[in-house]
Amino acid sequence: MTNQRFVSLWFRYLLTDWLTLKRPELKNLSFVIAAPVRNRVVVVAANSLAEAAGVHTGMALADANAIIPGLEVVSHVSGQEAKLLNALGEWCIRYSPQVAIDFPEGLILDISGCAHLWGGEREYLKEIVTRLISKGYHVRGAMADTVGTAWAVARYGKVRPIIAPGEQEQALYPLPPAALRLEAVVAERLLKLGFHTIKSFIHTGRTALRRRFGQDFILKLDQALGNEDEPLQLLQPIEPYAERLPCLEPIRTREGIALAIKELLERLCKRLYTDKKGILTAVLKCYRIDGGMVQVQIGSNHPANQVMRLFKLFELKIETIKPKLGIELFTLEAPKVGETDTEQEFLWSPEGCGLADKGLAELLDTLANKIGADKIHRYLPEERHWPEQSIRLASSLDEQPATVWRKDRPRPSLLLPRPEKIEVSSILPDNPPMLFIYKGVRHIIKKADDAERIERSWWEDQGQHRDYYVVEDEEGRRYWVFRSGHYNDERAGWYLHGFFA
User: Fold this and answer.
1) FRET pair for 361, CA 20 to 30 Å: which of 107, 226, 303, 388?
2) Spans of the chain, pLDDT less than 70
3) Which parts of the sequence belong to the UmuC domain (predicted)?
């Protein structure tokens, strides 16, 4: 019996999830990824919506189009699965130094001795799966003593994703033969013979099983049970982007610190440029001879590997570095990097290209490192009815909206996070207010637009609608107010929701 523990991760919609992240407009569409195979075009991957309609991997594209007229089709890029799994595997190295690609849709992690760092096996598996789901991937995970059992439970398990040590045989009992990672022909033969679960044949004599189904069948069964070792082709951990600069003499001056930063940036940016990567986050650590350590951090909205641009960001923070008796060692780390655009692409870009403008990114970097990144926000539209739910924070400067901003009706420049109750005097039934009182101040309404009715989303409980008005008081200030529900409803009330410039 082995003392090892493994986690199997299954990305059921690997390619289509990745494409949806790249092209958010596909989120609510049925689509497939297709490629030519033996003189016909077949479905390589189908998203969950297409699959729910009856489309599946391996189906002829013509049949898929017959099932879903107007089906969105995207051409398959050869090698994309391996590229994605390699990137996901490198990301998972934070949870275990031993990660292997399980082509074509999975990863295997040897987690022996790792789970306790996250508070136990349950918390460990939950952390990994939750983080991957939050990134936009459908993923299932399972943990067991063997790779084979973890693989089987991740894909076919119905109840527990964590199999206790030594219980792999019982966990395999209710699963179908395909859960043993058998060739499709062997799995079909077992089903035709009436072996619908692994329990129905697991105790059959090995000689008879080997004679009928072959040696590979016995090997897969023994590997799942833990009777045979299963070697893994592990990914090599990424060499971190970090540089060290020891000092012959302790550094105590601003000029000396600046020179050290430039030297470290030149070394690090040379590596990054070669790898076609740029810094998103960089951390400078200054180790003093008195045993103390001072740390400063910068961030960039776009991957950057230009020494002077990054130095200007660090230059803003040199004053916060207190060398005291002197700094004997500098280290520069780039824990977060990204792919950089090629220079050729910029040759074809027009001047002043909005969010893609490097000048804008550099301005935002400067502001963020002066006042804090948490003070700068970018918002994207959401397809929700209630105005306070119709926007969300963008995760980056490059993130693209899944829908468009609404422009057919006026919207305030400042929207309150939650509507605030106001006292109103109005002419019933459907007129805008004649005056309202907000925070003890009376506002006499001089002008008002017609009502805009916004209903509650259909999937929410049956609640009250809102009738919004743009109103202007006697001092020319404009507000966005609404009545919740009909005027004769006991639950009806008036609220202030925003301010116009």
Assistant:
1) 388
2) 1-2, 236-239, 341-362, 373-374, 396-398, 428-430, 457-463, 487-491
3) 23-74
What confidence tens digit (pLDDT) does each residue in 344-373 have?
334 334 444 555 556 666 677 777 777 776
> Residues of 385-420 as b/e, b for ≥16 C-beta within 10 angstroms?
eebeebeeeeeeeeeeebeeeeeeeebbeebeeebe
Helix/strand/coil for 112: coil
Instruction: Report the C-alpha gap between 411 and 499 in whole angstroms.
Output: 9
CA angle 369, 278, 134 (to 5 degrees): 80
Which element (helix H / strand E) includes 344? helix 343-347
Strands 466-473 and 441-448: antiparallel
Q: Measured between alpha carbons, how far is 434 from 121 in angstroms, rounded to an integer?
A: 63
Cα distances from 52 to residues 29, 48, 56, 140, 200, in angstroms, run 12, 6, 9, 18, 31
Q: Give the C-alpha separation, 36 to 30, whole Å.
A: 20
pLDDT digits (tens, 9 = 90+) for 246-270: 888 999 999 999 999 999 999 999 9
The span from the CA of 6 to the CA of 280, in Å, is 32
Compute the distance between CA of residue 55 and CA of residue 43 in angstroms, rounded to an integer: 8
